[in-house]
Write a structure and sequence with these properties.
CATH superfamily of the largest domain: F0F1 ATP synthase delta/epsilon subunit, N-terminal
CATH topology of the largest domain: ATP Synthase, domain 1
CATH architecture of the largest domain: Sandwich
Distance between the termini: 27 Å
Number of domains: 2
Radius of gyration: 16 Å
Number of strands: 9
């Protein structure tokens, strides 16, 4: 199968840079599959998984919001965070989930609802992926 270069960059590091056969990421309007020779493309990404196919097998990572740019040579993802399932701190993710749920239940005037919803989505994604270890 044909391969292309995938680069995933976060503010802290270059998370991933290898040749892959295919990726599937979560766009704002649903999943997006990318193969070699995909049309040039730029779009925002939602909080979700990235499925990376290498050597006929898939591996999965958690991505927070960001952008993907696809060119003839490669796909580049700029994300706020990226984590493999084995890197996820389950206790920290559970605590973040509980904090976000509590904030959403309180519904005070000073609460940033969108921020609490994003925190909850990130925590749920991390917990879901941590169970795949």
């Amino acid at each position: 199968m044909s391969e292309f270069l995938l680069e995933i960059v976060t503010p802290e590091s270059k998370f991933f840079e290898e040749n892959v056969e295919m990726i599937v990421v979560k766009g704002l309007n649903g999943d997006i599959g990318i193969l070699k020779d995909h049309e040039p493309y730029i779009t925002p990404l939602a909080i979700g998984r990235i499925k990376i196919k290498q050597n006929g097998k898939f591996k999965i990572a958690a991505l927070s919001q960001g952008y993907i740019e696809v060119t003839e040579e490669k796909a580049t993802i700029l994300a706020d965070t990226a984590e493999w399932p084995e890197e996820i701190d389950v206790k920290r993710a559970e605590a973040a989930k509980e904090r976000a749920e509590k904030r959403l239940e309180e519904k005070s005037e000073n609460l940033d609802i969108l921020r609490a919803e994003i925190a909850l989505k990130k925590a749920l994604l991390r917990l879901n992926l941590a169970n795949l270890k």
